[in-house]
């Protein structure tokens, strides 16, 4: 029976890895998810087989039923615009679960003083459980704040204690680690140890809140990825404490992939991970756009009819989607507009910035949902050299990722961040509800450039107006 369990675990984490490989491309992503789901099902079966007490089976099955009932509805009915919030919530639940597992292990072993079958306390179990408790608690409470900011329940701007922020965070970390050391040394189930464990969870939870609150909306995609990596590491630590191979491997896969993704996103924003965690960026005040002489510049408004004429007589159009397209659910209208332009002989492509929207791949998924060909979606490095020979660049709700100040203004908060070279196109049409700034809270000089015109309004309605005008041409 033990050999069967080991074999099932090996097959399960092999399917985890194979499924993850499928997530590298839109064409194989659905199949990759399905393969990983089969792996998880096998891991659950292996766990049930390894448990001799059938009474625990009832608890596990009941837990699975509750999880399915709570997890499936939001996964099925949440709109794509709210998918980042859903990811943050699910990630937080994972971290909180790991923290609860660590707490349950502490209670089950009388404060790590007495293990199953009379075994002596071992360092891997104690350290793994306490590490999982700290990191899982940080991830849970931090993810709640990320969810609140993405859902706009909390302000997107940084909320912190100023210069006291980092000292307070350091004190909370020292308190959590100190409590863990005391618990590990005492290895006792007495009342004092119980309070030390509660103090550890509270200190780590407050630390999770205090780390994410000062981080502005501009950095939220990176924060979600970082918290996801932390959840994976805490799950691996809990698996080590429970001697559960599937948890160890799955946790390490999530932790490693989340770490790699966090690093890639930070590079795409030209922001170091320590700088992001330090907070204080995003959601600030908007800078005024001034001309060389010091006078305030004015944006030029356009109409759907003028935009349709510009694009209909162009040779090449590049669409730059952003969060505004996601909010308006305009991807289907954009696909219809592109089809009309292509019927007129216009070449249409889509420029995708790595951090456009509120999570990695946000724009790719939206466009794929509208059946936009994958080959038409160009990554930033592949498309940036094409803007100079582009007749019209159509920007739909993208702010910071098209801001030329990132290349030209050393005083800009986003200076050095790789951006799409939209300003190099011969003509630029920007679809926005208003002149409000993006997540970074700074103005975009592109909006006031000579070749730029603004089409104000809801993106779906604006694109729909362009579609009707194209049909009439």
UniProtKB/TrEMBL annotation:
It is found in: Cell inner membrane. Residues 6-468 form the NADP transhydrogenase beta-like domain. Keywords: Cell inner membrane, Cell membrane, Membrane, NAD, NADP, Translocase, Transmembrane, Transmembrane helix. The chain crosses the membrane at residues 6-23, 35-51, 57-74, 86-104, 124-147, 168-189, 195-215, 222-242, 248-266. Its EC number is 7.1.1.1. SUPFAM superfamilies: DHS-like NAD/FAD-binding domain. It holds the Pfam family PNTB. It is a multi-pass membrane protein. It catalyses: NAD(+) + NADPH + H(+)(in) = NADH + NADP(+) + H(+)(out). The keyword Transmembrane applies. Its main location: membrane. Belongs to the PNT beta subunit family. The transhydrogenation between NADH and NADP is coupled to respiration and ATP hydrolysis and functions as a proton pump across the membrane. PANTHER family: NAD(P) TRANSHYDROGENASE SUBUNIT BETA. This is NAD(P) transhydrogenase subunit beta. The lineage of its organism: Bacteria, Bacillati, Actinomycetota, Actinomycetes, Mycobacteriales.
């Amino acid at each position: 029976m033990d050999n069967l369990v080991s074999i099932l675990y090996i097959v399960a984490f092999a399917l985890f890895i194979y499924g993850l490989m499928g997530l590298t491309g839109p064409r194989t992503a659905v199949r990759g998810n399905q393969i990983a789901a089969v792996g998880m099902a096998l891991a659950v079966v292996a766990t049930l087989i390894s448990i001799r007490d059938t009474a625990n089976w009832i608890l596990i099955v009941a837990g699975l039923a509750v999880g399915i009932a709570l997890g499936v509805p939001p996964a099925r009915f949440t709109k794509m615009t709210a998918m980042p919030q859903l990811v943050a919530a699910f990630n937080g639940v994972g971290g909180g679960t790991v923290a609860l597992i660590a707490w349950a292990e502490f209670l089950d072993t009388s404060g790590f003083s007495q293990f199953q079958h009379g075994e002596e306390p071992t360092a891997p179990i104690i350290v793994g459980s306490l590490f999982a408790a700290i990191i899982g608690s940080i991830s849970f409470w931090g993810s709640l704040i990320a969810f609140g900011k993405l859902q706009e329940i909390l302000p997107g701007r940084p909320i912190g204690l100023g210069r006291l922020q980092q000292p307070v965070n350091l004190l909370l970390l020292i308190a959590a680690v100190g409590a863990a050391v005391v618990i590990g040394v005492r290895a006792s189930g007495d009342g004092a140890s119980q309070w030390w464990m509660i103090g550890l969870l509270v200190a780590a939870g407050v630390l999770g809140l205090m780390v994410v609150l000062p981080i502005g909306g501009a950095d939220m995609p990176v924060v979600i990825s970082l918290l996801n990596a932390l959840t994976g590491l805490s799950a691996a630590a809990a698996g080590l404490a429970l001697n559960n191979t599937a948890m160890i491997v799955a946790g390490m896969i999530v932790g490693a992939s989340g770490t790699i993704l966090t690093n890639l996103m930070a590079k795409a924003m030209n922001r170091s991970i320590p700088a992001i965690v330090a907070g204080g960026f995003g959601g600030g005040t908007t800078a005024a756009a001034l001309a060389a002489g010091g006078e305030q510049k004015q944006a030029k408004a356009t109409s759907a009819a003028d935009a349709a004429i510009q694009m209909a007589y162009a040779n090449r159009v590049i669409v730059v989607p952003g969060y505004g397209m996601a909010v308006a659910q305009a991807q289907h209208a954009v696909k219809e507009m592109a089809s009309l332009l292509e019927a007129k002989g216009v070449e249409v492509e889509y420029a995708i910035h790595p951090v456009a929207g509120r999570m990695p791949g946000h724009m790719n998924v939206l466009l794929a949902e509208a059946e936009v060909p994958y080959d038409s979606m160009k990554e930033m490095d592949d498309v940036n050299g094409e803007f100079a020979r582009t007749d019209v660049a159509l920007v739909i709700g993208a702010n910071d990722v098209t801001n030329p100040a990132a290349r030209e203004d050393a005083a800009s908060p986003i200076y050095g961040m790789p951006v799409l070279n939209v300003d190099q196109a011969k003509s630029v049409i920007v679809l926005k509800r208003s002149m409000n700034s993006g997540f970074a809270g700074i103005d975009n000089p592109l909006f006031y450039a000579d070749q730029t015109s603004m089409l104000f309004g809801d993106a779906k309605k604006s694109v729909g107006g362009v579609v009707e005008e194209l049909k009439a041409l």
